[in-house]
Each structure stands twice: as structure tokens, then as C-alpha cells.
Amino acid sequence: MLFSLVIPVYNEEKMIGELFSRTMAALERLPIEFEIICVDDGSKDATYPLLAEAHQKDERFKVLSLSRNFGHQAAILAGLNHAKGDYIGIMDGDLQDPPELFLDFYNKMQEGYDVVYAVRKKRKEAFYKKWAYAIYYRLLGRMSGEKIPLDSGDFSMFSRRVLDVMLAMPEQSLFLRGIRSWVGFRQTGFEYERDGRAAGETKYSLGKLLRLAMDGIFSFSRFPVKFIGYLGIVAVVFSMIYSFIALGKRFLWGEVIEGYTSLVLIIFFFGGIQLISLRILGEYVNRIYDESRGRPLFIVKDKLL
Ligand code: UDP
Ligand code: MG
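A: This is the predicted complex of the input protein with uridine-5'-diphosphate.
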């Protein structure tokens, strides 16, 4: 039996030493063999040489290096593609996800689960970030019919058969935590407190974070298209009410409603609604375009396996 742990890292030179020693020590306590697949997502600092050094120290610490920065989710996918284990794990490279928990996950899986995902009870992060996450996950839960568990990220352990199903999916927009929940099987959450970063700053720029948020919504919900329809219905209802009022006034009382200002406002308002609707449709068109091009989601440059 083998456990494969995938860790994506991007410009984490300050982290590698501690990441290596703490994760190795934590996985030594598992009753099965393990391998670590650390994916260097196109780092520009000393991350790769440090990873190579770690590989020298222990062969079980394997390294993949991508040809450029493809993003957190793509880096994880690259690692998953190389995982040989019967059990698979994912964790961030900044030690915000304590590797010691994999023993608990493993024990939980022996109860017959295929997926054990971590649920963040507390986050040690800026309050606006905490709020944004909380609101986002609840919105996503509302919008998507799939029950994507609240407040759970990629930190998890799952079985080989779950991995095989996940890898067989040809999707371009990667929202792994959604796919992991979508595949079904017996899943359970495991509560933990999410630590702050051990060193360095976040590698998730606001742009990347928004991209991930959009991927979650557009891949797991049809709400955006329906929303256009709702806007339309509201507009029609309002215009009907207003026509009755206007026509009534005109024919029953002979009053003509004056209306340059209201006319201009209405034109702007509906112009805005139409542009927003086009943007939403455009997002789907873009996604169809991405899917049809079918470009690889990552390119592996070097392997130390
Ligand atoms: N990461 C990555 N590629 C990226 C951005 C981040 O591989 O383009 C890695 C990063 O090194 C870390 C993990 O993904 O190991 C999570 O990123 P981070 O901790 O910066 O995100 P946050 O926890 O702040 O949301
Ligand atoms: Mg982090």
C-alpha cells in the first residue's frame, strides 16, 4: 500500500526546508509507505534547487517542475497525474494545512470512506478574506445543485478509484474541490483549524483568486444564465406596470407623461443590463472555446522521480 501526497509550490524558497522535514516526519507515522510529489509551478526563486536537494536527501520526496507558472490547480493536477498511490493526498506547500492530519484522514478512511476532506473551522487570516471566503462558499452552495461542502479546500485524502475518475475528466476549467465532491462515493468532512502561513506571502494574487472563484461558479452552476432570464422577467413586469399607468393617464385623463430624464435613465439602465448579460454569455463562449482548443493544462519540464 502506498500513499501519494501532492504538494504544489510556487516561489516558496523560505518554506522548503521546514516543509520537507515536517511533512516527512508526519508521513513516517502512517502505517503504509508514502511518496511526496512536490510540483514546482514555475518558481523564479531558489525553490527548484532546494527541492532537488531534498530529493537527494530522500528518494521518496519526488519533484516535478512545470515549464512555467500554470497556477495552483494545474500544478496539483500535474502531481495527481504522476501519483502511483492507493491513497492520494493534496496539501498546500505553505504548511497552512498541517501534514500531521493525514494520519487522522487515513484512520477515517479505514471506516470505509473514499474521500476525507478537511473543513476549516477557523482561519487565521485577514478578516476581509475570511468574510469573502465565507460568503463565496455559501453563494456557490446556493447556486450549484451539487453539494460542494462548505469551507473545504483541496486539503484532503481520497482513494485510487476516486483519483481515476477525477483524472478521466477532460475539463479545462479546474476546480478540483468541486470535481472531488461531484464524483460521489462515500465522503466525509474532518474539521481542523487552518494555520497562518509558515513563511513568505500568499502566492494567490487577487486576480488568480477571482479566476478560481469564477471557475467554481461557472463550472458548477447554471445560475449565471438563469440570472439573465430573471433580469429580463423583472424588466418586462416593470414595463407592463408602467405602460398601464402611462396609457391610463393618457387616455382616461388626457395627461401626457413628460419624460426626457426618465427616458435617458431607462436607456442607460437597459443598456447596462444588456452589456452585463453579454458578458455572462461571453464567459460561457470563452469556456467553450477553451474546451474546444483542448490545450494541455500544464507542461512538465523536469522530473525527479
Ligand atoms: N501556488 C502554486 N501556484 C500558484 C500560486 C500558488 O503552486 O500560481 C501554491 C503555493 O506555493 C502554495 C499553495 O499553492 O503552496 C497555496 O497558495 P497560497 O498559500 O499562496 O494561497 P492562500 O493560502 O494565500 O490562498
Ligand atoms: Mg496559503
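Residues 145 and 221 are 7 Å apart (CA to CA). DSSP finds ten helices and eight strands in the chain.
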